[in-house]
Amino acid sequence: YFAFDTNEGETILLKVAISYVSIEGARKNLKAELPGWDFDKVRADARAAWNKELSKIEVSGGTDDQTTTFYTALYHTMIHPSVFNDVDGRYMGHDRKVHQLDGYEKERTGEPQKGRAGDRSNSTNPKSKIQNPKSEQYTVFSLWDTFRAAHPLYTIIDQKRTVDFINTFIRIYEQGGRLPVWELWGEETDTMIGYHAVSVIADAMAKGIKGFDYEKANAAAKHSAELDHFGLAAYKKRGYISMEDENESVSRTLEYAYDDWCIDQMMSVLYTQRAGKYNYTAEQANNDPILQRLEKDSDYYSARAGYYENLFDSKSTFFRPRKNGGFVEPFSPNEVTFGFTEGNSWQYSFFVPHDLRRLIELHGGKDKFAAKLDELFTTDQKLAGREQSDLTGLIGQYAHGNEPSHHIAYLYDYVGQPWKTQKYARRIMDEFYRNSPDGLIGNEDCGQMSAWYVLSSSGFYQVTPGDGIYVFGTPLFPEVKYRLENGKAFTIRATNVSSANKYIRSAKLNGETLDAPILVHEDIMKGGTLEFEMSDKPEINAFPSTSGPTSTLPGNAVAVPLISGQRTFGGNSVVSITTPKPDSKIRFTTDGSIPTLKSPIYAQPITISANTTVKAITEDFLGRPSLVAEATLRKRPSDWTVKIVSPYSTQYTGGGDDAIVDGIRGTTNFASGEWQGYQGKTFEAVIDLQRETEIKSVGGSFLQVVSPWIWMPDRIEFDVSNDGVNFTRVAEIKPGFPQREMTPTIREYRQSIAPTKARYVRVRASNFGKIPAWHPGAGGDPWIFVDEIFIR
């Protein structure tokens, strides 16, 4: 802050510039972008600059509130991403080194340019050596949010910046080792999931946007997809991410599958370009090693794009978390758990934008899929489980306040019921976007929430970035005009549109009647007019085509089988194996070896009586094997039972009361399901050994992961009893583990005692009180996580 010693009536003039490179860079930016002391001119230039940007889309005929809401939304989509380089083209790279962009001269002098504020391309000062820059370095890429609508919007109104965005991605890959996930001010935050930079790149390639190196972008995409972090190693090994592998396993699997389809789309573009460049015949293409590599890579990523199916439960028609080869039980689709990212199964069970035809088939056809969509919007189920502040804007279990739901209303177009898309799109626009301080139903998320509104109020939306296809919703304004960078204009007109007249009776593109609710990107870029005739009643036959839009994979992924059985058991246990493909065989082993196409064929449930590892593959009708499903089933080491005195969190049950003596151990992934969690209370349980037993040592295994507020206990006490009422202290352990140790750590604490005969053992683990001041959660209640109690 600044403080000034001023006299009454004295005026202070202040201007500020920043640089992420140096103080000298900030001085250069100030000199070039904020010269002189003409406040009114700066304000006028800013107004002119924003008016130019906001004039890329002109709406007319709406109410004042609708118009204000629209331009507020369009403004929001333009705040980020933000230019990161200085006026001389220098910027801080992800390798923490200063880099120089092409197209800039290192020395920049002179007084400012004329024109809009911040314009770096129109200098009139003869001393200036500023050239028209070839590119800018950008920052603030909230890609988990913005790949869905914001970046598709940019491909229409901001193609030049889209090229700069992607070239920024490539430089981040070259300097930082991978494509950005959620990049902020030259740093990778890894805040969200997926590698959705590939969606932005694939969408630009599908739409023919030039100006970046397609092959280099493809190499960067493949590199990011082949890393082994954030569940990717398990995803590649299993064909899905299991709960024991990584948090948010369902969401990660589904989003990785979509991203892999995007990489496959890149391969297709590269293949088509090369084959066309040399005018190859089919035989010549087969002899081109580059094309053959592209085809092989395409098959690989296309197969990975089908991995989503390995988490689909055909009985409930929901995507569900898997663990130890089978589905996690119990399961409720409305429960927000660590299997999902800011959502639940209701919201994520519709996220297969790249293979909607197969998703519809998995539900039993278009009518049943439409019924499932109806249920989503009309269910009276309430959110349960973890409290998640992002889940707002609810219509049934549809949550418009968070991004995974944003495409769902448009899925009715894919099952021949576009009037329902129109109904819900209009309701969302009317109810969740208002001209008021709280006019957004959820986080803006760097323009994504508003980009949905901009596109939707135009009457169309892109469900699958990467395919170049938009599907119809319902227009909000009588007229919307897109002024394109190529000098053409694309106009959408809606006759008699209103809150009542929200249904499309017919649609014409440049005078020709459309038989399906589809708009291709190329149609927009050519310029022209899209005309909607509106009605106050659902128009069942507005689009006579029964095929409608489609999104599909070639089907070269073989589904991984599902292994169901008690993870721990006493006596004998029965194990069953199933596959979602009825025309397939299941082959399995029970000796720990990897099954092959020569392994026994599964015909009926298997009975086991000892610790067993079951592994299985699906063999499809073409004789192709799936990846391996694996389940380890353990015979309980004892017949002990547990009475929990202080209830554990419903999110961290460990599998139930007896989990702390079942012999199954947790990992440093605190949400994998093996740990019992207790917040702000003493962990207390009584273990019944079922008979008087001589005890020689006691102990427990605990976890510390400081970021989510999990610490080692401050004190662990063990008492014994023969009647379960009167207890005697036999051990007290003080872990003394450093509270500031940030590395996720598991520690076993054991203590030998004088041999003592008892039937009951009571264990208590106490925390240290409130979270200390140095932690972001200061004053909150810490967690204790326990996964096993040892009694020898």
Protein described:
- The protein is α+β, with helices and mostly antiparallel strands and 792 residues long.
- It is 26% helix and 23% strand.
- The strands form twelve sheets. Strands 32, 33, 34, 35, 36, 37 and 38 form a seven-stranded antiparallel beta sheet that branches.
- β3 and β4 form a beta hairpin.
- α3 crosses α17, α7 packs antiparallel against α8 (214-225) and α7 runs parallel beside α10 (249-277).
- The termini are far apart.
- The model is unreliable at 107-133 (pLDDT under 50).
Task: Tell me the fraction of residues in β-strands, as a range.
Answer: 15-25%
Low-pLDDT residue spans: 107-133
Q: What's the overall average pLDDT, rounded? A: 93
**Shape estimate:** globular
Question: What Rg is obtained from the alpha carbons, in whole angstroms?
Answer: 30 Å
Number of continuous helical runs: 18
Alpha-beta content class? alpha+beta
Q: How can the largest sheet be summarized?
A: 7 strands, antiparallel
Report the helical percentage. 25-40%
DSSP, total strands: 38
Termini gap: 63 Å
Topology diagram in text:
Blueprint: H1 23-33, H2 39-54, E1 57-60, H3 64-76, E2 82-83, E3 90-92, E4 98-100, E5 138-139, E6 141-142, H4 143-146, H5 150-157, H6 159-176, E7 182-184, E8 187-188, H7 197-206, H8 214-225, H9 232-238, H10 249-277, H11 282-286, H12 289-304, E9 312-313, E10 318-319, E11 322-323, E12 326-327, E13 335-336, H13 345-348, H14 356-362, H15 366-378, E14 384-385, E15 394-395, E16 398-399, H16 418-432, H17 448-458, E17 460-461, E18 469-472, E19 479-483, E20 489-495, E21 503-509, E22 512-513, E23 518-520, H18 521-525, E24 528-535, E25 562-564, E26 568-569, E27 573-578, E28 585-589, E29 606-608, E30 612-619, E31 629-635, E32 641-644, E33 676-679, E34 683-704, E35 715-721, E36 728-733, E37 745-766, E38 783-791
Parallel strand pairs: 13-14, 20-24, 26-31
Antiparallel strand pairs: 1-19, 2-5, 3-4, 6-7, 7-8, 9-10, 11-12, 15-16, 17-18, 18-23, 19-20, 21-22, 21-24, 25-27, 27-29, 28-30, 30-31, 32-34, 33-38, 34-37, 34-38, 35-36, 35-37
